[in-house]
Amino acid sequence: MSDLYRSALSARISKLPMLPPEPDEDDEESEAADSLGSLPPPVAGIGPTTMPGTRAYASAQRKRAPNPELTPLSASAYFAQATQIAVPDSGLDVRAYYTPPRVREGGEPGTVIVCHHGAGQSALTFALAAGEVTELSRGECGVLALDCRGHGKTATTIPRPGPEGGEDFSIETLTSDFVNTLKVLYPDPGAAPSLLLSGHSLGGSVIVRACPLLQDLKYRLAGVAVLDIVEEFTLEALPMMHSLLDARPAGFGSQEEAIEWHLKTNAVRNPLSARVSVPAIIQPAPEGTSPAWIWRTPLRNTAPYWTSWFTSLSKLFLTARTARLLVLAGAERLDRELMIGQMQGKFQLTVVTGVGHMLQEDDPRKLAEVLVEFWRRNERVVPAGVKKVGER
């Protein structure tokens, strides 16, 4: 559903949605192999005879040797650590990528931007942006990115079937998972750093729902940042989702082919980011089957939850009791509630040009600049007694 919004509105495969996690099985070894090595620089339309997403395209791709310029890259250059976190209350073993903030003078904890990805993606969609945040904030702002239930390297330890069987992807469960994970990471709210919640697409719905829950638990929030999701237009786009999923290939012959497909379809426009994020959303197919690599997250299984994910998003965003930021890709329209809220100065709106739905990957530097400026304005610079952006 991450790409669902823009894909449906533009009716173009070039912005196809949700793409699963990072290299599985042997990817721990591959991560370790280049964990200390320096990353190569970024490598400088649609094929003429085969359309990306069709069987003919997949067949043609498998006949070619993998492109060495599109080999997967480790996220170690962008996060200080990667770990698994046992979250008993959710029955999960959560994958987390983390760069802690530098402790301020006097021992005061800094701020951590907590990132929740969209459906079908993984935490590594924020990898390059995380590295930029660390640089721009000079380490004062940390970044924590989590693989949510059924995505990336997060594993279910206690099955929680949904109402129609399969994994429970209800918005209530995803929100509970997010809050429970933060409670494990920061068991003492008073000693925890302030948290700036950032969510892309589905992740935006999760963070705005988590905001009051965390505040009730006495966590300090620096703000909420919702990335490229508007309730009204997303709900209008939902009927097109199945046809959009039909248009993408069932799998790929190699990780390089998966990366290439995302770049050719403009699902991700930044080659460097695609080399980090795309391997995390596919996994090896069962032995003896073809294609060799398949999508990790079965997005069709999440269909019963699509409408509930985004219903009431605008209202929840506008009523969040903290500073609010909405970042959109291109000059997209706001729905009526958001338009009124913007005129009333209830939130900061930033439009990033020259990017697709995956704005955090397409232009990670720009997003990092927006987030760091938002953090500085609302966490560090605002004098006592002065309201934050969007606060009443």
Structural class: alpha/beta
Number of H- or I-type helical stretches: 15
CATH fold-level topology:
Rossmann fold
The helix content, as a percent range, equals 25-40%
Tally of strands? 12
Number of domains: 1
Instruction: Give the full name of the CATH homologous superfamily.
Output: Alpha/Beta hydrolase fold, catalytic domain
Mean pLDDT: 84
In the predicted model, the low-confidence regions spanning at least 5 consecutive residues are 1-54, 381-386
Q: How does the major sheet shape up? A: 9 strands, mixed
Instruction: Please report the first level of CATH classification, the CATH class.
Output: Alpha Beta
DSSP strand content? 15-25%
CATH architecture: 3-Layer(aba) Sandwich
Order of SSEs, N→C? HHHEEEHEEHEHEHHEHHEEHHEHEHH
Task: Kindly summarize this structure in a few lines.
The chain is an alpha/beta fold and 392 residues long.
List keywords for this structure.
15 helices, PPase_methylesterase_euk, hydrolase, AB_hydrolase_1, disordered N terminus, alpha/beta, 392 residues, 12 strands, AB_hydrolase_fold, 16% strand, Rossmann fold, hydrolase activity, 3-stranded antiparallel β-sheet, 9-stranded mixed β-sheet
Please provide a written account of the structure.
Residues 113-369 form the AB hydrolase-1 domain. It is an enzyme of class 3 (hydrolase). This is Protein phosphatase methylesterase 1. The structure is a single chain. The protein is of the alpha/beta class and 392 residues long. It is 34% helix and 16% strand. It has one domain: Alpha/Beta hydrolase fold, catalytic domain (Rossmann fold). Strands 1, 2, 3, 4, 5, 6, 7, 11 and 12 form a nine-stranded mixed beta sheet that branches. Strands 8-10-9 form a three-stranded antiparallel beta sheet. The model is unreliable at 1-54 and 381-386 (pLDDT under 50).
